[in-house]
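User: Fold this; tokens only.

Assistant: Input:
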Amino acid sequence: MGVLRRLESLPAGMGGPGVFQSEGDVARGCRAGPGSALLAPVLWARRSGRAAVPLLYLAAITGAELATTLVDPLLGVILHVVILSALILHASVVPDRPYHKLLVALSLAPLIRILSLSFPLEGVDLVYWYAIIAVPLLVAIIFVASTIGLKREELGLTIRAWRLQALVAGTGVAFGVVEYLILGPEPLVEELTWQSVLIPALILLVGTGLVEELAFRGVLQSAAAAALGKGALLYVAAVFAVLHIGYRSPLDVAFVFCIGLFYGWVVSKTRSLAGVTLSHGLANIVLFLWIPFTGIGTL
């Protein structure tokens, strides 16, 4: 259960987004050339209603993930760059503060895939690859949170209701077992010993547990709550789930969506990421380090 995944035959690197003009300039550009026309749906959806734009971006991210998985990773990166560029442009011309915050926070979704597909890490062990990608992503998360003015409490960087948090953390074992039965991935280590799993376990706990939960349940859910109200839990869980399309399992996408809803509900009730961070990290430790050596997948 991680959005920081690696595919084979990755591109060596991609260029960043360019500089954008005002909405009026973009509208004229849409009429002027095919490249600018890609932004026309954004402007149309903005005039169509409050929920149309977030759903449009969710559909675009889903399409980019499908292209990455089923067509070509390079095409997927290009589409994610277009989506990221559109989000930055759109956020710059939205006067509605809650809506602006949502668009800025949503930029983390395409950025995650751009980072995970564009770094030239083919020769790096997968477990360390998680750590390397998590560092720039964490920097981006901090920057986005600061840009939209989210405080520590809004991000869930607190410890509250510790008994409940402990129970939530324990769900990671069950989640890891179920996802292993769905995906059956290869282990990240060659043997199950304390010496071989200690550092990988810490990397999964921080790199996937803390960083991903801070991005989705911390930044994105906080921003979405102000703009979408009760629909924020569904929306963030959907974004989280579609970023797992690369595992090529519709069942896993559905399962991760349910987990995203559960994590979102916990954070909305406790305003703390402690339990879901431990659960997420523990689920990946079980999935990638422990279960492959137990024989459970052969039952």
